[in-house]
Write a structure and sequence with these properties.
By secondary structure, the chain is of the alpha+beta class. The chain contains 2 helices and 10 strands.
Amino acid sequence: MASVTFRDETATGRALEEFSLPDLPDLPDRISARELVRLRVREEVARHNAAPSHHFRGLVRPSDAEAELNGYRMRTARRLDWETQADAAEAAFARNGFLLLVGDRQIVELDTEIDLTADPVVSFVKLVPLVGG
């Protein structure tokens, strides 16, 4: 049984937020980056859907939401579809919307296999486009 910790970081490496999924019985020791991204999104959407609100703290912006300092503000408190959010996260990764770091290496392809027994911490660094650049 593997465990994983998802951490959001600034570009300078400062941890902003993190949550762990310890010893999941169906989590393999080796998993693709794509499956890890989808697992993270599924978990954060499940946490949101347990008590839907106007505010969503997640990897990618839900449709019809506005970016805020620490998340996204939705027009109405509603449940989210994790698969839609996961597809959006994959698309964001493909267009360099965030970096994925495992241990001391950057993951550049979602098909990269990750050994969770060696590197159980997966860091996400959201990239913000520069104004005028």
